What does this fold into?
Amino acid sequence: MTSPFDLTGKTAIVTGASSGIGQGIAVALAAGGARIAGVARSAQHETAALVQQAGSDYLAIAADLTSIEPVERILDEAIRWAGQADILINNAGIIRRADPVEFSEQDWDDVINVDLKSVFFLAQAFAKRALARGGGAKIVNVASVLAYVGGIRVPS
It folds into this structure.
C-alpha cells in the first residue's frame, strides 16, 4: 500500500526554511518525496543537507520578505529549477518586541510586511501561475499564536 503522504514528483516552496518550523516542514515534505525550494534571507546549508539526507533535492532561494520585490523572482527560480511548483508553504515570520509606546513605525512595517503582505502577494502570484497551468496546487499559511492573541510587548 502506498503512503497517503506521497509527494513524489511534487515541488514545494517553503518560506522561512533556514531554521525552526520552516526547516522542519521542508524536511517532512522531502521525506514525503517532494523537491524543496527553500526561501530565506539567511544561509540554508543545514536545511539543504537535511533535505538531501531525506532523499530529496533542495534549491536555496535567498530573499528578504520585508518587501514584495522578490515575489516573482522566487517563483521564477523555483519553476525554472523544477518545471512547476505544486505547493506553497508561507511560513516566514518575524517578531519585534518593544513597549507599545516605544514601538517604531519601521518595526511595525517590517512585521506587517513579512507576516501579512508578503504572504498575501506570494500566495496571489503562486495562485495565478497555478490557475494558468490548470490548477492542482496547494497553499498553506502558517501563523503564530501571537497572530490571534497578541502580547504585552508584541504590539504588531
About this structure: The beta strands are 11-15, 35-40, 58-62, 87-90, 138-141. Residues 11-146 form a domain with the Rossmann fold fold (CATH 3.40.50.720). DSSP finds five helices and five strands in the chain.
